[in-house]
Amino acid sequence: MAEVLTLGFTQEELIKGCIAGRRDAQEVLYRYYSPKMFGICLRYANNYHSGEDILQEGFIKVFNNIDKFRGEGSFEGWIKRIFINTAIEHYRKSTNHTGHAELEKASFKQVSEVAVENLATQDLLKLIQKLSPGYRTIFNMYVIEGYTHKEIAGKLDISEGTSKSQLARARNILQKMVKSNNE
Amino acid sequence: MNGKINIDDLFKAAFEDFEAQPSPEMLDNILGDAFDVSVQSSFDDFTLTPSIHIWENITDSLPTEADKLISTSFDEFAVTPPAHLWNNINDSIPAEADKILSASFDDFAVTPPAHLWQNISESIPSEVDQLLASSFNDFEATPPVGMWASIQGELDVEENFDAKFQEAFAGFEPKPSEHILNNLLSNKFDTGVRRAFMRHEVTPQEAVWDRIKPYIRFGPTIQRHLPTIRRMAAVILCLFLFTFLINQYKEIGTDVATTTTPPKTTSKTNINTPTTTIPAEDKAEQPLESIYEGTTDRVVFTEQQSVNSEAVEERVEEVTSQFISQSFTKNNEKSPFNLGGSSSLPPASAGNNDITLLSPTYTKATAPIENERTDNISSIPSTVSGLDTYAPSIIISNPNLSDFDQLEVSNAAQGRGNEYIVQSNLMDIEEDSDLAKMMLSYKGAYISASYSHYNSWILNDAVRDGLTDPGQELIDYVMSLGKSFGVGMGYQFTPNFGIETEFLRSNLSQSYQELTTSVVSNKSFVDATYFYVPLSLKYQVNRLSSMNKRIPRTLSAVWGMHYGRLQSEKLDGNRDIEVGTEDYLIQQELGVFTGADYHFYLSPNVHFTMGLRAAIGTDFQYLSAPFAAGTPYNVQVGGRLGLNYRFATRKYKWSRGIY
After folding, report:
1. Mean pLDDT in residue range B112-126
2. Most confident segment among A70-74, B133-137, B312-316, B343-347
């Protein structure tokens, strides 16, 4: 029996309803998945408003391409991939102005500004958001999303070595921030 | 240890250095008789004040209240010596003593005071507490979606609950569980981060959804059914197209066969016709080409040629002298002519072979100048086979018709002479396919009655606003059924084309569903009654059934416009629509419609139709911009049943060019 998500809709009904352009199905799908996806968006964004932008862009893509979901694999996974790709797109757009050199230039300058006493998920999120876009993207993709360095290199158009080194630095910076915030 | 201080000893010690000397009188008294008395009296007034340091010593040595309390608190104090102490003791004392000592401690037990345990038990966490506390380390509970809305709905808005609620959480800072922190600071950093974000959810602001909505494809219910409607329309269109192409193919095939056949005129006649062009009119006025297919075994097709009158007369004379005498001398048993007085054709008497009986009028009217087709020439029926050299252009053979009738009809079919009205007893020939052909060739008036059942959609401003404006209630359409019935009339100008109008009373129903975030949603429906007058142009394709040539088949398509006027409206079946909101319904409607019907013939004058109709209309006031946003529409898509009656029970006008 299909799992009823909310308002009596099963996932299949939601998908069909969205393909047909039903407003109620679209809203139910948005309300069901938006908290999870917004969490992802915030991890890749440097602030709340950027996260909202990614969320908005991602959901527009989801609704306009939902007919391309072929039912292979998890629907939530499909949506998640769209949001991660949208976030990467955002990162690419931001680096168009600064170039890839930004990856190398990222520094730990903001650590001293961190003034959180205890680390909850929200606090950790704040710390991640304080990382530079390059570090943040690579760290999220590798550590949380589980991409390999090869995949990251492909998606971000960088070398595998760069991905590894940036990850190490990001991890190091984040650990230092965590420690400094708990001292 | 005994905590009590011996006050007597202390007192003695205080008087340790004290020495007192008696006075001489006192000594005398002591040593005399009055010693006792004097001693006693000498001490009557004796007072001695001790030195200050004595009292200080005493007070310093005296136990304080606190000391007493401490002392009493240790009254029952007992400490169990550690195990190794006994071992040490045990090792150092003789064996026998060990035994005795050991035995003496066999029953040794010290019970701590009751209050001590209570104090301890109250201050330390229990095992259950620990379990309970640890079980909530990672506990996170997201309230259900509708909970906040429910809470907010039940609260008094005036209390400004939101502000209070936010204020209450102003200083709130969630703390991570210990293991998350440990993981973060240990070498399990990645795992810690991943775990921290495993169930991380953040509800975005409501405005985000409002910003998304304009960018995503939105299809109202009517649009959701468009694919089905399109498919139905495509099927109908394909049917029409297929039929049209088949007809065109047959027509082209006939033309090609005709033009490729060498004309026999030159071989049969010596007439030099000045002009031998084939008039286009003849082709155009043969609307039932398909009928020919079923009659090729009896009909000889010819192409009529236009000639000038002088050439005709010359030719007629020649033909008359050359062929007719031969023809009728060959077939002198029965005359093909049996004309009435009213006919323009000359009367002929049976058995009269004299050519002089043929009037000039007849010869002029019937003289064929033709290119005779050779196909199926052998199938010319015996009843007119005698006219093989003077055969009419199209020869109809019907055993129920007289030879003359057949000839007359044939001439009429060629367009020669006037249009003839044939009186025939249909009952006698109803088994013949000619009846079917006659049914299909009908021209004239008819009346009809119809019933329709359809999906009706009342698309109005309120719903449209509700669907697009986030400030309005969110309402969606629910599929509803409507019906209509009425009478109509029509006229067939040709077997293919006609016009039709109807007077319909239509009931349009529309249900709406209010979309809310709760499971329960409100539903309502509107019933509107309209009076419609559609006017349509009809094109129909007539054929005999390929399986049975006696069965006529007609497929027609209609296109037209309709006028509608709102008669009444009800909400939820019994309530009048509120004043002001009736504007949401179209008051005077102008629209277009299309459809298709399949005709089932029950008799020559009665047939019923079964078909589809689709109509859309809007209010007069929106006609200036019928596709602008906010325009209301009435849409109907459904089936239609019709019953038609033709005013020609026993008279059929024979269409020129059909037979």
Report:
1. 69
2. A70-74
Q: What are chain B's domains?
A: 7-73 (no CATH), 261-423 (no CATH), 439-653 (2.40.160.20)
Query: Chain B contacts of A7, Cβ < 8 Å?
Result: 517, 519
Among the listed residues B265, B113, B205, the one whose alpha carbon sits nearest the alpha carbon of residue B470: B205
Q: What share of chain A is helix, strand, coil (3-state, %, to 5)?
A: 75, 5, 20
Q: What is the Cα B461 distance to its own chain's centre?
A: 20
Span B592-600, average pLDDT: 92
Tell me how far apart the alpha carbons of residues B505 and B449 are, in angstroms, rounded to a whole number: 12
Q: What are phi and psi of B73, to 5 degrees?
A: -65, -20
Mean pLDDT across the stretch B386-413?
53
Cα angle, residue B293 at apex, residues B290 and B299 outer, rounded to 5° = 120
B176–A178 C-beta distance less than 8 A: no
Q: What is the CATH number of domain A8-98?
A: 1.10.1740.10
Is the separation of the CB atoms in A108 and A173 below 8 Å? yes
Closest CB to A118: pick one of B176, B197, B213. Answer: B176
- Confidence class for position B430, pLDDT limits 50, 70, 90: very low
Work out the burial of residue B590: count CB atoms within 10 Å of its CB; fewer than 13 is exposed, 13-18 middle, 19 or more buried: middle
Query: B288, B655 in Cβ contact below 8 A?
Result: yes
Complex confidence, ipTM? 0.77
Helices (runs of H) and strands (runs of E) counted in chain A: 9, 2
Q: Give the pLDDT score at B147.
A: 64
Quickly name the fold that domain A100-183 has: Arc Repressor Mutant, subunit A (1.10.10)
The residue among B515, B514, B500, B525 whose CA lies nearest residue B611 is: B500
Give residue B556's Cα distance to chain centre. Answer: 30
Reported residue count of chain B is: 659
- Are the CB atoms for B572 and B588 separated by under 8 Å? no
Residues 6+ apart with CB under 8 A from A127: A114, A116, A119, A174, A177, A178, A181
More confident residue, A159 or B421: A159
CA distance A160 to A54: 26
The answer to whether the Cβ–Cβ distance between B212 and A174 falls below 8 Å is no
What Rg do the C-alpha atoms of chain A give, in angstroms? Answer: 18
Q: At what angle do helices B7-14 and B52-61 cross, to 10 degrees?
A: 160
Q: Say which DSSP state B45 is in.
A: T
Residue of chain A whose alpha carbon sits nearest to that of B478: A22
Bridge partners of residue B487, in order along the sequence: B449, B503
Q: Which residue type sits at A107?
A: S
The predicted-structure confidence for A103-126, as pLDDT tens digits, reads as follows 444 333 333 333 333 457 778 888
- Mean pLDDT across B422-428: 40
- A8-98 and A100-183 have identical folds: no
Q: What is the pLDDT of residues B516-560, one digit of tens each?
A: 544 445 677 788 889 999 999 999 988 887 777 778 888 999 999
B108-111: long-range pairs with CB below 8 Å, 24+: B110/B78, B110/B79, B110/B80
Residue bearing the bigger pLDDT, B318 or B460? B460
Residues from B contacting A (CB-CB < 8 Å) are 142, 145, 173-176, 180-181, 184-185, 189-190, 193-194, 196-197, 200-205, 208-209, 211-213, 215-220, 223-224, 467, 474, 476, 515, 517, 519
- CA A52, A53, A56 angle in degrees (round to 5)? 85
Higher pLDDT, A45 or B102: A45
* Binary contact (B474, A178; C-beta < 8 A): no
Residue partners of B605: CB distance under 8 A and separation at least 6:
B645, B646, B647, B648, B649
Domain spans of chain A?
Answer: 8-98, 100-183
Q: Which residues of B touch A178 (CB under 8 A)?
A: 184-185
CA B454 to chain centroid: 15
